[in-house]
Amino acid sequence: MAENRILVAGATGQVGAQVVRILLDKGYFVRALIRDPNRKVEGLEGAGGTLEYAVGSLEDRASLAKAIEGIDTVVSSANGIIPSGKTMSIKKMSAGGYEAFISAAEEAGVRHWVQSSVPSWSKEHTVPELAGKRLIEQRLERSPIAATIVRNPAFMDVWMVMTGAVQAQSAHPHATTKRPYGFMRMWQGLAGNLVVKRGIMLAPGGRNHGSAFIATTDVAHMMAGIVGKQASFNRTIEAGGPEWLTWAEVAVLLSKHAHRPVRAVKMPGWFARMGQLMMKPVAPSAASILALIHLVSSHQPKWDSAPIVEEFDLPKQTTLAEYLDQNWSDMT
Questions:
Q1: Which of 52, 125, 203, 317 could pair with 264 in a Cys bridge, judged by C-beta atoms 3.0 to 4.6 Å apart?
Q2: Does residue 133 contact residue 117 with C-beta atoms inside 8 Å?
C-alpha cells in the first residue's frame, strides 16, 4: 500500500476529508490538495499512513502539476456547489479546471482516477452540477488513465438540513452545511427549524417521492475502497444508500427525534426551477443549489448498493435512522 501514492482533491470537503482519513487508516501515503495553506484536514487524530499537503487549485495549472508529481492515484470530490469561499464557477471548474487537472495527471503518469459524480437525468442540462460532472466524465473517458466514476444520489447529511431539520446536521468538522455560504445560511435561517418548531418538513416532489439516500461516510468508503482495485478500472458505479425511502417515511423518522408529528409538505420542482432562473443572473451558486432541489423533486434513482458493497468488501452502509441517531442534536 505504501507504494500507492494518492492525491485527494477536495480534501477539506465533507467527502474528501473522510476519504483522507480512510486512506490513512489503510496505511497509504496521502497528499491532500488544499486551496488555503492555512487550512488543514480536521478529524485525523490517531490516523496512520503518511500525510502531506499540496497547495493548489483548479485555476492554477502549475500548482496542479506540482501537486501531482509522483502520484499514482487521484481521488477527486472537488466541486463548487456550496462554496466555502471564493471559487470557480461550476462550468469553469468542470470544463477548464478539470481539463487542466486531468491533462497534468496524464503527463505525470497517473494510473488510476476515482471521480465522484451524480445521477444521470434526461434534463441534466438544466442542472449545472450534473452538466459539469458529465463533462468531467467525458474527459476521463478520452484519457488513457483508468477511471472509476462513482455516481451517488442525495446525501442524507445535506438533505435532512435542507428539508427543515438543522438538528440533523452532520457532526463532522467539514460538514457541507456548516460552510459560511450566504445562501445556505439564509436557507437554514428560514427553514432550518421547521421540523422541530412547526412539525413541517419540506419534501421535494411530495410525500410519495423519494430517494436512495446515502451518507457521505459511505460515499467516502466507496471511493477509498476501490483505490487500486482493477475490477473498478474504466467503470461507472451507480450506487445509493442501503434503502429507498419516501419523504413520508423520512418524516416518520424525523418525528421520533423532534418528539412531535412531522408532516411532509410538497416542494414542487417547478418552484425550484423558477427560483433557479431568477437567481442565475445575480447569484449563480444559489441558482445551482435550487437546480439540485429541482433534480431531487423530479428524479428518483432506485439503485441497489448491495452488490457494490459486497464486491469491494465495503463497510455496512448507514441507514437514515442510524444517521439520525448518530448526529441529531437539540440545537435550535
A1: 203
A2: yes
Q: How many CA atoms lie within 13 A of 219 on its CB side?
A: 28
Tally the C-alpha atoms within 13 A of residue 92's C-alpha that lie toward its C-beta.
10
321: DSSP letter: H
Spans of all domains in the chain: 5-154+212-243+301-317, 158-210+244-298
Residues linked to residue 148 through DSSP beta bridges, in sequence order: 114, 235
DSSP 10-23: TTTSHHHHHHHHHH
The whole-model pTM stands at 0.92
- Gap between the Cα atoms of 47 and 265, Å rounded: 43
Q: How far apart are CA 119 and CA 212, in angstroms?
A: 11
238: β partners? 151
Determine whether domain 5-154+212-243+301-317 maps to CATH 1.10.238.10. Answer: no
Contact at 8 Å (CB) between 296 and 267?
Answer: no
Q: Provide the sign of the torsion angle of the four alpha carbons 167, 173, 176, 178, taken in this order.
A: positive
Helices (H), the chain: 14-25, 61-67, 90-92, 98-108, 128-141, 156-162, 182-191, 216-225, 247-258, 269-279, 284-298, 306-311, 320-327
Q: How far apart are CA 122 and CA 125, in angstroms?
A: 8
Q: How many residues does the chain have?
A: 332
- Looking at residue 77, what DSSP letter applies? -
